[in-house]
């Protein structure tokens, strides 16, 4: 008898598969970011509302229904910056050169040469030794045009001495980040979005928060050199790590640029 009431169509299976796929893609995009906590909160409230409706608790169900209806508008107002960053993250990750794609190729991204990775790494190590603060953004797939417009366009070849001279404390371009894409330093003195992660270590300052924020909204890796301690940190995919030596830093950058992101 039960089988007579259950009729599963191919479109029902496809519907479930598509919803699961979209939720998985959404999770990959927002994991480790403030948006993840916001989404979790909304999801819990929505599940509670469905439970209340199923139990036919009319009064609280009506109140929660109104809260959810008005709350969506309030969320757009309160979290407009997070929503902007989220949409920017989707655009940067899934749109490349005007082409929409859900799966990125596994080839060595943007054709970065080994020698250029070594030059970047060496610059970071030497800046660390002199406790010279630095923010070095390296793009894998992301278009950095929007961020480049906040600074000074260079389009220069990657060079250890050039990177060091940019971040020299009295240099006119030292304040901000340099952006590297397609084997070129495309811009310097650039402004990056700040991370709103609440659990960031207390010894991380504005420079670290900027580097982390950049990786939350773009497909980039950011090398951060602390001006206070000389320590090197690497931010990628919404997470930040401390790096102790040149070899380790080079492996992290190379691994990120050659990583398959399907």
List its traits.
262 residues, alpha+beta, YojJ-like (1, 2 domains, seven-stranded mixed sheet, two-stranded antiparallel ribbon, 10 helices, elongated
Describe this structure in words.
There is one protein chain. It contains 10 helices and 9 strands. Helix 3 (34-54) packs antiparallel against helix 4 (58-78) and helix 6 (114-129) runs parallel beside helix 8 (160-167). With 262 residues, the chain is α+β, with helices and mostly antiparallel strands. The two termini are 44 Å apart.
The overall average pLDDT, rounded, is 79
| Straight-line N-to-C gap | 44 Å
Output the strand order for the largest sheet. 4-6-5-3-7-8-9
Low-confidence stretches: 102-109
Enter the CATH topology name of the largest domain: YojJ-like (1
| CATH class categorisation of the largest domain | Alpha Beta
In DSSP terms, counting alpha (H) and pi (I) runs of 4 or more, how many helices? Answer: 10
How many domains comprise the coordinates?
2
Label the structural class. Answer: alpha+beta
Helix proportion: 40-55%
Number of strands: 9
Largest sheet: number of strands, sense, barrel closure: 7 strands, mixed
H/E element sequence: HHHHHEEHEHEHEEHEEEH
The outline comes out as elongated
Please tell me how large the radius of gyration is: 23 Å
Q: So, CATH architecture of the largest domain? A: 3-Layer(aba) Sandwich
The CATH homologous superfamily of the largest domain is termed DNA integrity scanning protein, DisA, N-terminal domain
Share in β-strands: 15-25%
């Amino acid at each position: 008898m039960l089988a007579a009431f259950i009729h599963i169509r191919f479109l029902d299976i496809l519907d479930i598969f598509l919803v699961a796929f979209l939720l998985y893609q959404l999770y990959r995009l927002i994991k480790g970011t403030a948006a993840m906590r916001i989404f979790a909160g909304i999801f819990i409230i929505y599940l509670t509302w469905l439970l209340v409706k199923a139990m036919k608790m009319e009064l609280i169900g009506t109140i929660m229904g109104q809260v959810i209806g008005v709350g969506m508008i309030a969320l757009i107002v309160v979290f407009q910056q997070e929503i902007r960053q989220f949409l920017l993250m989707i655009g940067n990750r899934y749109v490349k050169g005007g082409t929409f794609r859900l799966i990125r190729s596994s080839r060595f991204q943007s054709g970065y040469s080994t020698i250029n990775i070594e030059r970047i790494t060496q610059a970071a190590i030497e800046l660390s030794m002199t406790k010279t603060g630095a923010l070095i953004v390296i793009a894998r797939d992301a278009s950095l045009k929007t961020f480049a417009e906040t600074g000074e366009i260079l389009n220069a070849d990657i060079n250890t001495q050039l990177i060091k001279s940019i971040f020299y404390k009295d240099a006119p371009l030292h304040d901000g980040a340099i952006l590297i894409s397609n084997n070129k330093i495309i811009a310097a003195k650039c402004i990056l979005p700040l991370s709103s992660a609440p659990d960031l270590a207390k010894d991380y300052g504005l420079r670290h928060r900027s580097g982390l924020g950049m990786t939350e909204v773009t497909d980039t890796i950011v090398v951060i050199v602390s001006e206070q301690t000389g320590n090197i940190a690497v931010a990628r995919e919404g997470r930040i790590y401390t790096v102790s030596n040149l070899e380790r830093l080079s492996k992290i950058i190379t691994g990120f640029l050659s990583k398959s992101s399907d």
